[in-house]
Write a structure and sequence with these properties.
The complex is a heterodimer. By secondary structure, chain A is α+β, with helices and mostly antiparallel strands. Chain A has eleven helices and nine strands. Chain B is 42% helix and 24% strand. In chain B, the strands form two sheets. In chain B, strands 6-7-8-3-9-10 form a six-stranded mixed β-sheet, with helices on both faces. In chain B, a hairpin with a 4-residue loop joins strand 9 and strand 10. The radius of gyration of chain B is 19 Å and the shape is globular. Classes of the chains: A alpha+beta, B alpha/beta.
């Protein structure tokens, strides 16, 4: 919640700061428009905002994980580390209530730790020591070293002077002291605002893991191999889907019989998410390469068929008429009018299909695979290797984005007239 | 037997709601080679239907069209067409658009190269032949469409409101160009238009059609096209006969529109 509030604060503050600091001296046509609210063409992404947006995500990520990339004064309060002390008041049958202290050494998980040294103290209740890892909690049997144990009716009645009973808890400056139903104390050191690395590792841990995985690999394959396996499946599935789907779409756009025959199939298969086919494909083709490619083929097939059909339907009839009256044959009209005219639609379909395929391959690998990006993050999550999971997600995003950029570039090169007719 | 002959053409088709439309009824017309015919009429008079039948895109329910002695069965390179919106191929540059017909006929570049270059000169697009067509203005696109049609050397050129989408100034220039090309090439041309002035200027013969059912209402033989070939079109428009004809035909179409409105009110 607080993270969200800070994020909104950065958004608003940076807006005003940038507005105040940056004075646009542009003199292009758009800058002279007085009506920009409601004029979509006058709205262009503010690149300063984009940069701040990305930076603030990393800043928040670093600040709330105690990253070394972020200056210390920007860190959110971390978990309590050090010696926590609280007192308890115990009662036993026939004895006056007695106080004793508990010293708990809170240490960073993964480092060596010794019990703190404390004198036993006066009275029948003796001082206790224990260790607890940061973000963890621990039961503390304070009665063990006391002169009267549970058999003598040992009972804790207060912590730091505040009364406590089974099921209740007391907040101390170092953390929460609770009492179990059986009357045992447990200590949960204050967690602060930072995230435990097991939930959210700091950026440098992810970066470190990236270098490590790129060098040594994970699960018998290098990082590049995992990525390449996913990518290869997408490319194979997409090309097979396009190879069948585009001619199918053309046939549906050009023939009543094909349209009637395949309409029910295409219209039925289109709304079925490819993910829903994973179990069936695994039953039929197993978890190997064949199953993945079949799945991606099915994911791309309908999208490409519909795109090609729309491309054919989108041919202005006057163009076809013009070609006929210029003496073109049916084949020539197909080759010189219908196919080029449908290219923009097909490219739009291809971009969608590539996106869907990329999403589907990761999901399919999450379910079952021997290699691949999805498999990598799935296995890592089972071992709580959150840094690999994060790294995988970031790489999946980057590759998906890269695919889309490449498709857009190809589109621009091959169908320059798109959107200009 | 040369020329275009339209004999007792009727066109009737059923609508999904059970009624049927008589788009054309008993239209007959003879057009000699090299004649320039403009067709005028209120919307719904079947003039575009007539053109589509001549082009071979539609089959008439009765009657037939004969060109140079053979019956028209479908679209063919002998009947070229110019549409209201260029209907150009955006994936080709200007020269590839213009040379589309000859290329589809399997001709070599050395056979059509000079002819296409000449046509691009005539329509004033010599410097634009490598340009993409979507980079051209509307008027230039229509000039490409004209050149593309002429490059195929058809016997008859059919124009479906070819200048309808242009601004007034460009339109006037293009009217001059159409006249010039007509005189230069000696092609038979049928031109459909909404503009009375354009029909008068660009019609050696002028056909006024009436709606419901689409039929020929009146036919004129006019001197203005011939005058326009040698003179400024503005001068032609100042001719007293021109103004008189314009008023006459405008009144005629006005009456037809009134009648349609009246009938619509009656049935409502």
């Amino acid at each position: 919640m607080i993270v969200f509030a800070i994020y909104i604060a950065i958004f608003v503050v940076s807006f005003f700061v940038v507005k105040f600091v940056v004075h646009k001296t542009a003199t292009d046509y758009t800058s002279l428009k007085t009506v920009t609210f409601g004029d979509e063409s006058a709205v262009t992404p503010n690149r300063i905002a984009s940069v701040i947006s990305v930076l603030s995500i990393f800043l928040l990520w670093g600040a709330f994980t105690g990253s070394s990339y972020v200056p210390r004064f920007l860190h959110a309060p971390g978990p309590f580390i050090g010696d926590a002390v609280f007192t308890y008041t115990a009662e036993a049958e026939g004895q006056a209530p007695d106080d004793a202290t508990v010293t708990v050494r809170v240490f960073e998980v993964g480092t060596d730790v010794d019990d703190p040294k404390v004198a036993p103290g006066e009275g029948w209740a003796k001082n206790d020591v224990d260790t607890v890892g940061a973000w963890r909690s621990g039961l503390i049997r304070v009665d063990r070293n006391d002169e009267f144990g549970r058999s003598d009716g040992h009972k804790i009645v207060a912590v730091n002077g505040q009364p406590i009973a089974p099921g209740q808890s007391v907040q101390t400056e170092f953390g929460r002291v609770g009492m179990s139903p059986k009357g045992t104390l447990n200590f949960e050191p204050a967690k602060g605002w930072q995230m435990e690395p097991i939930w959210l590792p700091p950026p440098e841990a992810v970066w470190q893991r990236l270098k490590e995985t790129a060098r040594d690999g994970y699960r018998d394959s290098t990082l590049a191999a995992h990525l390449w396996f996913s990518l290869k499946r997408v490319i194979q599935g997409f090309f097979l889907g396009a190879l069948v789907g585009i001619p199918l779409g053309y046939a549906m756009g050009l023939s009543n019989w094909f349209r009637g025959w395949f309409d029910p199939i295409v219209e039925f298969m289109r709304p079925v998410p490819p993910l829903a086919l994973i179990p069936l494909v695994i039953i039929w083709a197993g978890i190997g390469e064949k199953g993945k490619v079949i799945l991606l083929f099915l994911a791309a097939l309908w999208i490409m068929a519909i795109a090609a059909r729309a491309g054919v339907s989108g041919v202005a009839i006057s163009k076809v008429h013009a070609a006929y009256s210029l003496g073109a044959s049916k084949f020539q009209i197909m080759r010189h009018v219908i196919v080029p005219n449908s290219l923009p639609e097909i490219f739009t379909g291809a971009r969608v299909a590539m996106g869907v395929c990329w999403g589907t391959v990761v999901a399919a690998e999450l379910v079952a695979a021997e290699k691949g990006t999805g498999m990598m993050i799935m296995v890592a999550s089972k071992f709580q290797l959150t840094d690999i999971v994060l790294m995988g997600i970031i790489l999946i995003g980057i590759i998906g984005f890269g695919i889309d950029i490449l498709m857009r570039m190809a589109e621009k090169a091959l169908v320059p007239w798109k959107g200009r007719v | 037997m040369s020329g275009l002959s339209i004999d007792n053409l009727s066109m009737r088709f059923d609508l999904p709601n059970g009624t049927s439309v008589q788009a054309l009824k008993d239209v007959s017309l003879q057009l000699a080679e090299g004649e320039l015919l403009s067709v005028l009429g209120p919307s719904g008079c079947g003039k575009t239907t007539l053109l589509n039948i001549v082009a071979g895109f539609l089959a008439p329910t009765e009657g037939q069209i004969t060109l140079n002695g053979h019956v028209v069965k479908g679209p063919d390179a002998e009947r070229g067409m110019v549409f209201q919106q260029g209907a150009l191929f955006e994936w080709m540059n200007v020269r590839d658009n213009v040379s589309f017909g000859p290329r589809m006929a399997g001709k070599r570049k050395r056979d059509w190269g000079q002819h296409v270059d000449h046509l691009l000169d005539v329509v004033g697009l010599r410097d634009f032949k490598e340009k993409a067509v979507y980079e051209l203005s509307g008027g230039m696109q229509q000039r490409v469409a004209l050149a593309r049609c002429l490059a195929n050397d058809p016997d008859v050129i059919l124009m479906d409101e070819p200048l309808g989408a242009l601004d007034a100034l460009t339109r006037e220039k293009m009217q001059g160009l159409v006249l010039k090309l007509w005189k230069e090439t000696g092609k038979t041309i049928i031109l459909i238009t909404h503009s009375v002035e354009e029909a008068l200027l660009l019609g050696e013969r002028l056909l006024v059609m009436a709606p419901r059912p689409g039929r020929i209402h009146r036919e004129y033989r006019l001197p203005f096209a011939d005058m326009g070939v040698n003179a400024d079109l503005r001068e032609v428009k100042k001719h007293p006969d021109f103004g008189q004809r314009r008023e006459e035909i405008l009144g005629m179409i006005w009456d037809m529109e009134e009648e349609i409105m009246g009938r619509a009110e009656e049935s409502a």
